[in-house]
Write a structure and sequence with these properties.
Chain lengths: 338, 338
DNA sequence: GTGAAAGCGCTAACAG
DNA sequence: CTGTTAGCGCTTTCAC
């Protein structure tokens, strides 16, 4: 394909390239006449300013990037797609230049966060899927690149904000549902023990128990790595060691699915014998039977909020203090709880 | 953040920027000594070549783009994410520069396909979600930009290839399952009447019927726009008008879900009274009960194949003839068919 | 083997 | 209001 550059347009329109540039950048001091004429010609020859050139020569082209870390092929886990949709829609609504990138922990080791950003001229990034020990976590403490972390707390750097569900409260609410349902021996099927959300949800679980006057029994907490199969196995094992367990609070819906299957496998009735509540609000949960009770997060809103925040961070003044925003969650009571 | 440019590295290393550039571009005529030295310095100061500048000055930086058209927020529909994963993994494995973009039919009207591509310096694009009447469809007939279409036939332009499931055969296979199950009055819940895949799947449906010696009755075909709710309504209506219907072939799993619900609503037993088979192979189908029989496409493989093909198209010689590749599908018999 | 210099397409002073 | 020109950061001849 033949590239149409600003020169072609300038020549064709009989003006200088400077003028064409001004027209395309909405400079005020251009006669209405030439503006129109230039646009006409540009349209005729099919001209579109090259973004790379623009980024190079201008200091004011802003592009915000959404970056997913360690995105693995897991179709059931629809969170990333929802987040993507959210920031996409927001970027679109604000006419922001948007870019998407996928990285891995490995890549983080090969290139620093600042390098990654300067390489691609991003002015702000929305980051999802970072792990506790990723190299970028450390670098994020001192970076000057406006960043918003999704589902991960920030390290008091004013440049970086965060968007999360209030995991502690949400988890407590979920466990409260179980408690109010009359379940007495509530197990927690947690994810990875060192993930922030796991820690927070576990805190909520314990708080609910304590507040209700129950004992917290650490043998009633398993870590199934957010994996359906492992959760299935661990649930069976827990049930065997602790036959009095009559409810499971799962740190993710995917694990809840595994637990539900385990219950089916060992012949327990849900929600009569044992109650189950998940976390996330995947659509999947509404289709299984019995339908899964859960605390639904709003990943699409995460995306929108993240977009809003990154825009504030890149355009507005430096905030006085680190910004952490919660997006609301919904307790959904379906058929796995009484 | 302070940008580290090639200049810094050159100065620090005591060589010219040309040399640094050569080192980073693996030119052979560089002494091993300076090569090492330059890399060392670059590493020390945290230098990473700027991609925009690179794209501008070099004619050989290739970046392939995955573009989704009219991506709407539909978490149940996990196809796009799977495709994304597939091309991401392929691009990663081949070290291809990758970019993702979302467009809309509206945007297609504002900017031509060539403009879109030259604006962002893409050398090849993988396109998903195009509709029959989108402006780009017409422009794709004559474009010189290597393109691969997912789930859409090509218009004999050697620059553009396509990756699809063999929809006709797959649909026929699905209907054959129904026929072999002894169902006699098979309804087809199709999507939009003018989408290519709809047309193809309908063709397969008719072929299966004809081959089996059945009549094709067009009043037994509905168009539910690939929507769960609409499918639900239409199924009920079809059943009312045609009480002898004893099976539904659905052009998508999402619609099959709606049909299943409709059957539940009117008290029909599945698969005893009526059989249902879907199309797509969403994970969701495995969790509903009765579990949905379906023909599973492999969207992740679509992504990988598309990556492979776009690479051939951009690197290899122009193919003699338009390339259309099928990726295999799997007939999954679960509980909604006998 | 390596430096110097001419662009790549565009923006942003600086004149006029 | 508009033309001219100096870069932006990098690649790529062309010399030496």
């Amino acid at each position: 394909m033949k590239k149409i550059t600003i020169k072609e347009v300038a020549k064709e329109a009989g003006v200088s390239i400077g003028t064409v540039s001004r027209v395309f950048n909405d400079y005020p001091d251009i006669s209405e006449e030439t503006r129109k004429h230039v646009f006409e010609i540009a349209n005729k020859v099919g001209y579109s300013p090259n973004l790379a050139a623009r980024a190079l020569s201008s200091k004011r082209l802003k592009t915000i990037a959404l970056v997913f870390n360690d995105l693995v092929y897991q179709p059931k886990y629809t969170f990333p797609m929802s987040i993507l949709n959210g920031v996409l829609d927001y970027a679109e609504s604000q006419n922001l230049e948007f870019a998407f990138y996928a990285i891995t922990t490995q890549k983080q080791k090969e290139k620093t966060y600042e390098q990654f950003c300067s390489e691609r001229d991003v002015t702000g990034v929305i980051m999802q899927g970072l792990h506790q020990n990723d190299p970028y976590i450390e670098q994020l403490k001192t970076t000057r690149v406006p960043t918003v972390l999704i589902d991960m707390p920030v390290n008091d750097n004013q440049c970086v904000g965060s968007i999360t569900t209030d995991n502690v409260t949400a988890a407590k609410d979920a466990v409260d549902v179980l408690i109010k349902g009359g379940y007495k021996n509530i197990d927690m099927m947690n994810g990875t023990y060192d993930a922030t959300v796991s820690i927070l949800r576990e805190r909520g679980y314990k708080k609910a128990l304590t507040d209700a006057g129950f004992e917290v029994n650490s043998s009633l907490i398993q870590y199934a790595n957010y994996d359906e199969q492992i959760a299935n196995l661990m649930a069976k094992q827990a049930l065997q060691q602790n036959p009095t367990i009559d409810a499971f609070f799962c740190a993710s819906d995917i694990m809840a699915l595994g637990v539900l299957q385990a219950l089916k496998d060992v012949g327990k009735k849900v929600p009569a014998d044992v109650g189950v509540i998940g976390f996330d609000g995947l659509d999947l949960g509404a289709y299984v039977s019995p339908a899964l009770s859960t605390v639904a997060q709003q990943p699409y809103e995460f995306g929108r909020e993240a977009g809003r925040l990154i825009q504030e961070l890149t355009d507005g003044p430096q905030p006085e203090t680190t910004i952490e925003r919660h997006v609301p969650y919904n307790l959904i009571r379906r058929e796995t709880t009484r």
